[in-house]
Amino acid sequence: MAIDNVTVKKIVIPDRFKPVLGASGFYFMMMAVFIYFAPDVFLQVGMFTAVFLSLPLFIIMGLSLVFVTVSGEIDLSFPSTLALTGLIFSLTLTATDYNFWLAFLASVTTGVACGLFVGFLVTKLGFSSLITTLGVNFMFAGITQVLNKGQLRQFPKFDDSPIRAAVVGSWGPIPAQLIWGLGIALILGIIFNRHRFGIHVHIAGDNPEAGRAMGVNISRVKVLCFVLVGVCCSITSTISILMNSTYYSTMGEGYLLPVLAAVFVGGTPVTGGKGTIAGLVIGATTVVFINTGVVAVGLDGYYTGLGFGLVIILSLLGHRALSGRLSR
Amino acid sequence: MDKSPLIELIGVEKTFGRVQALSNINLKLYEGEIVSLVGDNGAGKTTLTKIISGTESADDGAKIILRGQEQKNWNAAKARKLGIETVHQNRALSEQQSIYANVFMGRELVNRFGFVKRKEQIKETEALMRKIGYTSKVWTPHSPVLKLSGGERQGVAISRAILFDSSLVMLDEPTTAMALSEQAEVMEFILNLKAQGRSVIFISHNPWDAHAVADRFVILDRGRLVFDGPKGNTTADEFISMLRDVAKKGSV
Ligand SMILES: Nc1ncnc2c1ncn2[C@@H]1O[C@H](COP(=O)(O)OP(=O)(O)O)[C@@H](O)[C@H]1O
Ligand SMILES: [Mg+2]
Question: Annotated Gene Ontology MF terms (chain B) (predicted)?
């Protein structure tokens, strides 16, 4: 047969690269549109610096959400956990006369406790994580408000501290927190793809019954994912407090939709068992550019929502086209 | 016979809500024997293998004794560590993951920090795929299981059960969705396990297959153990009429 002798060289993209490819293609398309319409804004170094300031916060939160999503659950409680861990950080800071490490430890402990609480409700009581974390989000927000008593907490003493310089200082146009954010992404990326825990996270969201039959402790894996969200909340809130030298109890409010958007735009499907860390980083960049860009070009803030909506829906189309299924 | 059993079940019961899936099962399994576990749909065969493999826990009061040691808090991880491998009826595969991830699922090769030795896993999976004779050259250890045919998936589940040293292998209807030639290979494979000194629990819908490889028959009927005896000189026809009797009268 003649056909057998002709080797048709076709470029085959391995499936696991497709989400990243889709997310980056989408990112560049969006940037092209931005630059076309507002070159004076989007070609400035200042624009990128502005994006890099808040990008790491969204990356760190998004990373933990990728783990939870891939494990087959969802967590909507992180905005409140973020505010609560930030409050504990602030309270400890005041009580210990600026002992940063003790305050950070207290914040991380709080984050872990929040994660264990959610994990317990979801795995031991078998509650739906969507509804549970929705409820927990209200609950933690309430606790935070009660404990905070409506105060704005400022920490001017931080302004020239070395710890502030190390965490949120700037290295030229690059803010230090970007390096931290990317570093955490690298570490979590390696764990996600190469560590036994990461492998089990995939199995938990793909076929938990199979995992259990093969001796994987699926409940523990899921609980650890929720704990990771808690820890990432405390890291994010700490960075955010250092950035502004201020704590306010509504600090988590702007995160919910952009972080979830970053996860899905990045190419991690809601269905579990699959996801990408590199995609998340690109997805977060896309989302933060919209966040920052809409304001930078002088558009009304309302347009941010419109931008998110377009991006999410268009990116879903893109990912689906790449995975070869335009209809369900 | 004065051998001590490899595994002994005493008073195993299992209820799912109102369904009594197993009632008072007492069973001993010896080294190097093939037990054909048969019975109608819903007889409790799968439930019994799940209890032995630690996937389901038996109701209170049951005892599982492995090599003379009573096992407490029996679970799947422990069972595998102690040498019990299972080809589950539902295959227990994680379909979006690669073949090699499935082969090593739950028993990943890791370094002391818990990082997976990926290259080693891939290499062993390649060797395994060659050994079980994957005819399709399209698949590599990286291929996701969802692209495989039913028989090929079965192959992954079976090869996972032989990868690790084990003393008991349970196969729950392993030949479903297989071509005839593949089925013959599985029968060969089961005899091989025995030749290596391992014990086998084999569940099949096909009474001829069940008869062919068995050293001993265990028949379940609606959760009760109604027959347990050596094959001896029992012919396939006699075995099949035993099964008919059980279906009709609930006893042999
Ligand atoms: N997870 C479960 N929940 C409820 N009932 C179950 C469950 N698993 C098995 N059963 C019931 O237990 C009985 C035995 O099932 P099973 O062990 O699968 O039988 P077999 O493998 O012999 O066909 C059946 O009546 C079945 O419906
Ligand atoms: Mg069955």
Answer: ATP binding; ATP hydrolysis activity
3-state secondary structure (DSSP) of residue A304: helix
Best to test chain B binding among A16, A214, A270, A274 (most B CBs inside 10 Å): A214
Tens digits of per-residue pLDDT, B228-237? 999 999 999 9
DSSP-derived letter for residue B199 is E
Residues B117-139: what's their mean pLDDT? 84
> Distance between CA atoms of B45 and B47, rounded to whole angstroms?
5
Residues constituting chain A: 328
Provide the domain limits for residue A115: 47-293+300-313
Does B110 sit within 8 Å of A207, measured CB to CB?
no
Q: If you ran DSSP here, which 8-state letter would residue B72 be given?
A: S
Higher pLDDT, B96 or A324: B96
What domain count does chain A have? 1
What ranges in B5-149 are assigned the alpha helix state H? 45-52, 76-81, 99-103, 118-131
What is the distance between the alpha carbons of residues A77 and A94, in angstroms, rounded to a whole number? 26
d(CA A23, CA A281): 9
Kindly report the CATH number assigned to the domain that includes residue A247: 1.10.3470
Q: Is residue A133 part of a domain?
A: yes
To which H or E segment does residue B221 belong?
strand B216-221
**Is A206 at the interface with chain B, CB within 8 A?**
yes
ipTM: 0.91
Q: Kindly report the backbone phi and psi dihedral angles of residue B98, in degrees, each rounded to the nearest multiple of 5, phi listed first.
A: -70, 165
